[in-house]
Amino acid sequence: MKMINVSEVSKLFHVDEETIRRWARAGKIPTKKYGRKWLFNYATITGEQSETDAKELLGRTAIRQKPHYSFDILFDNKRIEVKSASLRYYKKRLYSWMFTDVGIDKNDFYLFMCYDDKHQNLLRSYFIDSKKVKMLKNKKMFSFYISVNDVSLNKYRVFKLNFIKGGEYHA
After folding, report:
1. Under 8 Å CB-to-CB from 10, ≥6 apart: which residues?
2. Is the dihedral angle over the CA atoms 149, 150, 154, 159 positive or is it negative?
3. Helix (H, G, I), strand (E, B) or coil at 30
């Protein structure tokens, strides 16, 4: 389990260190205090960051679900699973984002959040219907890959979602 400090968390959330300490004292972000130091579980914090970024993309009507639900966010009565990944390198070249545990049919859409290699900056996001994801990915795998150079998914790329009549969404 990788633990990170206040300084590293402040870089992830793009806020100053005092804000992180205030959030930690108020219980707004999961943390442990060891002596005078706050330490944070990296996986938990990056998940929190992804959900914060997802709510920014989806707007105020997005409702974060409790951990026992099979999806992360309820948006316009649609169940949305938020997946985030850091950019992976292959032979020192930009390669892809790999999303795991994709394929569970208990949601309506996936929101794929693509971060840089340090998981500090959101580079891209894709909003894709679950049925379309099922068609695009390898049927035997529970992982979904998005290549840096893949332009075929650009029509699913989102910057901010808006709902329009008929159940369609557009950026």
Report:
1. 16, 17, 19, 20
2. negative
3. coil
Amino acid at 160: K
Quick check: helix, strand or coil at residue 120?
Answer: coil
pTM: 0.69
- Whether the CB-CB separation of 37 and 29 falls below 8 Å is answered with no
Q: Which two tokens stand for residue 16?
A: 């100053």
Residue with tokens 């989806």: 58
Six-digit token string for 51: 């959900």
Separation of alpha carbons 16 and 19, rounded Å: 6
The residue whose two tokens read 């009549």 is 165
Tracing tokens 């971060």 back to the chain, one arrives at 115
CB neighbour class for 140 (10 Å; exposed up to 12, middle 13-18, buried from 19): exposed
SS3 43: helix
> Residues near 16 by Cβ (< 8 Å), separated by ≥ 6?
10
Tens of pLDDT, residue by residue over 49-70, are 777 777 777 765 666 655 545 5
8 A C-beta contact, residue 67 and residue 96: no
